[in-house]
Amino acid sequence: MATKKTTSKAGAPQKENPAMLFGSRNYLWMAIGLGAIIIGFILLSGGASKHPETEFGESMFNFRRLWIAPLLLLFGFFAEIYAIFRRPKQHAQPQENK
Fold first, then answer.
1. Which of 15, 47, 77, 97 could form a disulfide linkage to 60, CB 3.0–4.6 angstroms apart?
2. Which tens digits make up the pLDDT trace of 6-17?
3. Maximal C-alpha separation, the chain
4. pLDDT more than 70, % of the chain
5. For the chain, what is the HEC assignment?
């Protein structure tokens, strides 16, 4: 497959990219993963006490911080890995018989 050459404003030849590296589904999975990571870190934050030397806050050991936030972070990271390694589907081009 030959690529089409064009010239830029400076006159230097440039090659057009025949296909994008990622497809639209890849970007969708990247956005889902990034959203899950951001929400996971938000759920993980908080729980500071005003006087940490004298008071102990039990809120750091609640279900949200021990289970929900880490699982959401893991899902987000796995979604990012899946989005990077997923190959976009190629459109079938008709073959010419010679």
1. 47
2. 555 666 666 655
3. 85
4. 71
5. CCCCEEECCCCCEEECCCCCCCCHHHHHHHHHHHHHHHHHHHHHCCCCCCCCCCCCCHHHHCHHHHHHHHHHHHHHHHHHHHHHHCCCCCCCCCCCCC
Stretch 60-77: mean pLDDT: 93
User: Cα-flanking dihedrals φ and ψ of residue 26, to 5°?
Assistant: -60, -45
Burial of 80 (0-12, 13-18, 19+ CB in 10 A): middle
pLDDT in tens, 39-59: 999 999 877 777 777 777 777
Structure tokens at 86: 């997923």
Instruction: Assess whether pLDDT exceeds 70 at residue 75.
Output: yes
Q: Are the C-beta atoms of 12 and 25 separated by less than 8 Å?
A: no
> 């729980």: which residue's tokens?
47
d(CA 58, CA 87): 46
